[in-house]
């Protein structure tokens, strides 16, 4: 794997235009974000209040407002911390890379409380800045990692020249987001592998060659059951 590949980092959301004065205590920031995640896990987004977050964090509601002027911004900042950094895999095997990338994508959304993404997006959708912050924090980082994987596969000649990579990216994203949003079914590793197989059979220049290449390269068959 290429560990020099770019790391897609979830943006940090903080108050803009903070007045110059006493430096902010980073311990309060960390405690507030940790408390936000705890309250989300316990009570969900709909019942989260800044008073409850402040109580969990051992601070005050005004201290939280000075850092994040709205509940949505606070929750986005906390979820960005939980999402963490996503690194696009680069093993030289398109089949393995896409499989691993989708598993990272799914794992990222599994770290989100199940009843948060939909209501949070609804709260952000009507405000241009909040919607942009939602997209930057929760939508774009995993999408960027998948895009890098597809771009690399295309540059290697593994994907057909006539495909619309942005459309393929949306097809992959819809597979993850649909289940994350509605929560009607879990996405297992085996299902991800079947999805990768179905996708590559349609967009690869030569899927049997990719499969054979993955078998030859892989020293770790657990990366993809289709190696068997």
Explain briefly what this protein structure is:
The protein is mainly α and 228 residues long.
SSE sequence, one letter per element = EHHHHEHHHHHH
> Radius of gyration over alpha carbons?
20 Å
The assigned CATH architecture of the largest domain is Orthogonal Bundle
Unreliable runs, pLDDT <50, ≥5 residues?
A: 14-21, 220-224
Describe this protein's structure.
- Helices cover about 65% and strands about 5% of the residues.
- The chain contains ten helices and two strands.
- The chain has a two-stranded antiparallel ribbon.
- Helix 2 packs across helix 3 (about 60-65).
- The radius of gyration is 20 Å and the shape is elongated.
- The chain starts with 6 loop residues before the first strand and ends in an 11-residue tail after the last helix.
Please give the structural blueprint.
Layout: E1 7-9, H1 26-43, H2 50-57, H3 61-67, H4 71-83, E2 85-87, H5 94-110, H6 117-125, H7 128-155, H8 165-182, H9 189-203, H10 207-217
Helix pairs in contact: 1-2, 1-4, 2-3, 4-7, 5-7, 5-8, 5-9, 6-7, 7-8
List keywords for this structure.
Arc Repressor Mutant, subunit A; Tetracycline Repressor, domain 2; elongated; single chain; 10 helices; 63% helix; two-stranded antiparallel ribbon; mainly alpha; 2 domains; 228 residues
């Amino acid at each position: 794997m290429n560990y020099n590949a770019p790391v897609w980092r979830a943006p940090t959301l903080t108050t803009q235009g903070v007045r110059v004065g006493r430096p902010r205590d980073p311990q309060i920031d960390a405690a507030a974000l940790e408390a936000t995640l705890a309250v989300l896990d316990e009570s969900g987004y709909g019942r989260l209040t800044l008073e409850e977050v402040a109580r969990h964090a051992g601070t005050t509601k005004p201290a939280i407002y000075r850092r994040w002027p709205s509940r949505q911004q606070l929750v986005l900042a906390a979820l960005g911390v939980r999402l963490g950094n996503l690194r696009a895999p680069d093993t030289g095997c398109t089949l393995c890379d896409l499989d691993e990338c989708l598993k990272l994508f799914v794992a990222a959304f599994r770290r989100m409380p199940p009843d948060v993404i939909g209501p949070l997006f609804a709260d952000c959708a009507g405000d241009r800045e909040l919607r942009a912050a939602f997209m930057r924090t929760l939508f774009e980082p995993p999408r960027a990692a998948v895009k890098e994987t597809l771009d690399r596969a295309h540059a290697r000649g593994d994907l057909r020249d006539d495909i619309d990579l942005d459309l393929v990216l949306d097809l992959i994203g819809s597979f993850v987001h649909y289940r994350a949003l509605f929560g009607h079914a879990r996405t297992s590793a085996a299902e991800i592998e079947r999805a990768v197989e179905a996708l590559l059979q349609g967009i690869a220049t030569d899927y049997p060659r990719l499969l054979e290449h993955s078998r030859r390269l892989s020293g770790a068959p657990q990366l993809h059951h289709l190696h068997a």
